[in-house]
Specification:
Chain lengths: ~290, ~230
């Protein structure tokens, strides 16, 4: 079996039923577009709750004239506190620019840093759930503290939300990938039907089952690859369209988190998983000896 | 070349397609298998070609016991055979030349060798001038000659044909039979199943007759003489 035969026949199979091939590619694209959209949302949302860091329990927003070191030292004396971090106005701006490169550039022209200094208080892991709220309530009355807010509950809920979104994406992705596999399987079955005479001739001439099936495997894998690539293209188009819309009409929440596309491994996973789905679909329809 | 011993093929408990058939075909022989429709000709050919497995008995083709041949070896066994069918079995979307080179590309032959063999096979059946035609552009006789070219392109040791003239008029039928005779002269064993008695008579070759699954040898030369001079001693 040579590559010329393999690719030539795979192409001939695709051409013999162009509508069915196009339909299968489109179905696969849609099947991967939906979970891809979930992945895109989850990725952008997870930027806001960086899971790599231990969560901040309380955030104290200070008056610009307040002595941040003195207040930080006072907070650190509390036995429930693990550590405190002073985030100055410049550091806050820098952090914003890092997290949101597109939006951060818009703040370059400002003469003053737009963010007030804050102290981030990290609590010990063993402290009760209400500790953050108690600490925020007592710090509220301290001189130099503009506001004190407990972040723990919100951060936990936010992380849970992102996790749920990701889980829903995986679930829906699995479900739709299964549907894609079935659609490829039926497209391959149809192609088998269209090529029944050729299969018959090949078998009578002494072609091995692998040589008969290989073009169908290749065809289905390419169908999946094309579907996955198309879903990636659709996702990127959606992302760019949203960026375009938000730049014209900024939204207070969406503009904050809709700032990045999928990372490279996730983006490449779409066509790769598509190709695997196509291959599995062809295996399903060719699991029995194709009838001649 | 072919050794068949006490061969039986049943489809279910009440349908005996082949019953206790035994015969031998020597290397280089030309043998006709004849009998009425439904007698078991096609079944016997399918058994020789390992498209069917015997219920009992033994079939040896070119030294291989077909009954015990593993599935993985069947394609390699079939590469030593050529098969011609009544309905030509050509790929409609490919030219005749492409049909011939396609089957060889499946078998993994280099391109140069594919072209050489395809051209040689077409030349042997006298169709080299129609090599770029599609099957639908050819007459019935030309299509069957193409099918013969397809069957001999791998230079088989045994050529099996199942009603190869079933779709052809008497003139074209004779043409195909002459082609088989030429192939036979070059050393290929030819085994043809047909119910065209006149054609068999004209060819003057060995004849096996199958009826209701039972086989018997038939002496066509003696039958012809008996018909022409009925008072001669049998």
């Amino acid at each position: 079996m040579n590559s010329r035969y393999l690719f030539g026949e795979a192409w001939a199979i695709a051409r013999s039923g162009p509508r069915h091939t196009a339909m299968a590619v489109l179905l696969i694209a849609l099947a991967f577009y939906v979970p891809g959209l979930f992945a895109l949302l989850a990725r952008n949302l997870s930027r806001m709750s960086d899971p790599a860091q231990d969560p901040v329990g309380v955030v104290l927003t200070l008056d610009p004239s307040a002595d941040a070191r003195a207040i930080a030292a006072k907070v650190a004396q509390d036995r429930r506190v693990a550590r405190v971090t002073i985030v100055g106005s410049e550091a806050a701006l820098e952090r914003f620019r890092r997290a949101y490169p597109d939006l951060g550039a818009a703040l370059q022209e400002l003469h003053e840093a737009p963010f007030p200094p804050t102290i981030e208080v990290h609590l010990r892991p063993a402290v009760p759930a209400l500790a953050a709220r108690d600490l925020a309530a007592s710090a509220q009355s301290w001189p130099g503290v503009d506001s004190a807010e407990s972040e723990e509950a919100f951060a936990r809920k936010f992380r849970d939300g992102v996790r749920l979104l990701r889980g829903a994406g995986f679930f829906l992705g699995g479900l739709l990938a299964f549907a894609a596999v079935l659609s490829v399987a039926s497209a391959v079955r149809l192609a088998l039907d269209l090529h029944r005479d050729e299969i018959d001739i090949m078998r009578r001439m002494g072609a091995t089952e692998a040589a008969i099936r290989a073009p169908f495997w290749l065809h289905a894998s390419f169908e999946g690859l094309a579907g996955g690539a198309l879903s990636l293209l659709l996702l990127y188009a959606t992302y760019r369209a949203a960026i375009h819309l938000l730049s014209r009409e900024p939204h207070p929440v969406l503009s904050l988190f809709w700032v990045g596309f999928l990372d490279l491994p996730t983006a490449l996973a779409l066509p790769a998983v598509g190709a695997i789905a196509g291959f599995v679909g062809s295996l399903l329809s060719l699991s029995k000896r194709p009838k001649s | 070349m072919i050794q068949v011993f006490r061969l039986c093929k049943d489809y279910g408990p009440f349908r005996h397609a082949i019953s206790d058939v035994s015969f031998n075909v020597e290397r280089g022989e030309f043998v006709f298998l004849t009998g009425p429709s439904g007698a078991g000709k096609s079944t016997l050919l399918k058994l020789l070609f390992r498209e069917e497995l015997p219920t009992s008995g033994q079939v040896l083709v070119n030294g291989r016991n077909i009954g015990v041949l593993p599935d993985s070896q069947v394609p390699y066994f079939r590469r030593t055979l050529g098969v011609v069918f009544q309905d030509f079995k050509l790929i409609g979307r490919k030219t005749i030349f492409e049909n011939l080179s396609f089957v060889q590309s499946v078998l993994g032959l280099p391109r140069g060798e594919q072209k050489r063999r395809a051209y040689q096979a077409l030349k042997r059946v006298g169709l080299q001038h129609r090599m770029n035609s599609y099957p639908s552009e050819l007459s019935g006789g030309e299509q069957q000659r193409s099918a013969v070219a397809l069957a001999i392109v791998n230079e088989p040791v045994l050529l099996l044909a199942d009603e190869p003239t079933g779709n052809l008029d008497p003139v074209l039928s004779e043409e195909i039979m002459k082609l088989f005779a030429e192939i036979n002269i070059r050393g290929t064993t030819v085994f043809v199943a047909t119910h065209d008695i006149d054609l068999i008579r004209r060819m003057g070759k060995r004849v096996l007759t199958i009826e209701k699954g039972m086989l018997r040898e038939r002496d066509m030369a003696r039958e012809s003489l008996a018909r022409e001079a009925p008072f001669l001693p049998g």
